[in-house]
Amino acid sequence: MTAADDQFDAEADATIIECLDLGKPRSFFLYAGAGSGKTRSLVSAIRKTIDGEHGRQLTLTGKKIGVITYTNAACDEIKQRLEFDPRVEVMTIHAFSWSLIEGFNADIRRWIAKNLEEEIAELEEQHRKGRPNTKVGVERLRSMESKRRRLARLDSIVKFVYSPTSDNRTRDSLNHSEVIAMTATFLTSKPGLRRMLVSRCPVLLIDESQDTNKALMDAFLHLEEEFHGRFSLGLFGDMMQRIYSDGKDRLEKAIPARWAMPRKRMNHRCPSRIIKVINSIRRDVDGEEQVPRSDAENGVVRVFIAPQVGVDPFAMETAVRQRMMTIAGDPAWQNSNTVKTLALEHLMSARRFGFVEFFEPLWGVDNLRTSLLQGTGAGLGFFIRDVLPLVKAIRANDRFGATAIIKASSPLLERAALQEAGPNQVAQFGKAKTACDGLLVLITENPAVTAQAVLEFIAKTGLFAIPDVLTPFVPSDAKEVVAAQDNARQGDQVDDIADGEAIDTSPELSAWSKALEAPLNQIERYDLYVRGQSQFGTHQGVKGLEFPRVLVVINDDEARGFLFAYDKFFGTKEKSKADLENEAAGRETGSDRTRRLFYVTCSRAEKSLAIIYYSPDPALARDAILQYGWFEEVEVELIS
Asked: Which domains does the chain possess?
């Protein structure tokens, strides 16, 4: 029966392979629900293509099959499954975008200048209308000055740089959103760039296409329309799992009728009871239904409804795990480390995992959120890629590891510093050792030492380069050290760094000021969290992942979000006038987004699923949830 299960969606796989025929390529949209094996289909189709005559053709012409994935982890997994075949180019969307536009320095300069001028004009208009002496007014002025400074420097930048996986620290670097926006614009406006892409990758496959940036997806669809018959655009996705706001709404409606539309219907991940639940959740949306494997277990599902106020969530969630241990007959539910807890919002995870004082201030700044969730950006990189590895090495008395980190990252041992030291190079190594010894004393004598204290120590000793974003928090007696290092790195004057305005300081300054007051050990927990190595995650962040035991935590009041509204979705809170108007007009509502998110979270479980819903009216919530018919009466419990 297992062989039959594995061949259940063979027709869809065969359709994909047929579409990758380089002689007559055809575009397709693979519609596949949770746990259906989209990645397996993608890898299998590519493998069959490159192992045959088409693979030889790719080798002779130097062309490649392009694959765009959603995360670095997914990228690495696909590369490994394909044994790092050079005929396949696997990248994240940011890396692929940069590979297209890198080197278009004059065009990039013009785009940035136009964008900065528009942003400055908008800020000036806001400033004219607003009150000048308020905190917001002061931050607005700082932001305008920073943007004007960047605009003035543009002509001096010969070559722009960008790193999709590490930190973009220098003044000639671009940020993530700029690269995506520029790529969409350039692909739409430059016929030569479109021809180059098709010549380089006659096949381009995009995973999680429903959450690909709308402007970029429109550019890819425009490209496909121009080159169809010579180019295959393959979209892998599930519109029920579209959870990010910048994805293309109703992508399936934009697909031309000439495309192939294969479907995968078997769920290889979830037990049959959970599959029945997620089928019910999406039934009113598109009617798509999955079937379980023939060897699937029945599985366990429970919904626990707790009061929204007057309870200790930590104690409540511990009680739920204890209850699930009994219901599922699974002792692993008792251990929080073997249960994946999914909170509605990152702040909820930060509170539960103990890094909220560091995380919350930075999370409050819109333009920091993407880098915060990816662990990228100069300020974050300073701590998690420079400071924390060294702290870990010196705590473990790993002298070899500490030396390797210092040699790789510290300005004290850079070639220029050693050349300047001349015959006193040994003294330079002594400075590095003294700095490491002092850092060990600092973190040992005070286990709760703040990030600010660690930053000040490193600035004074010159142990690591201080990024511009953190320079305003360096003590005045260390500014000369920081400025000298920056001169050496940048090769230009840095007068503006000394007064702490080297970057857009508007909301970021106050956010970093608060975040740095947190203990360094909170940044260590944050690092584990963003790397997916904690027992906590968010509803949005686990798309594509799977776990044996899943605890979904729902609390609109604690999440304080506006994109998702479980109280309205479950019928315990009245819909607003705007909600009703959006429904009547056929526009997306908070309930639509919430339904999709609920589908994603419930479909992560491989064995058992628990949902704890903190409701303003538990009795009403229980009745409303049972009316949906998704859960049996015995599966919905009130808990206090």
From this structure: 2-98+179-267 (3.40.50.300), 105-109+119-159 (no CATH), 272-344+539-638 (3.40.50), 356-529 (no CATH)
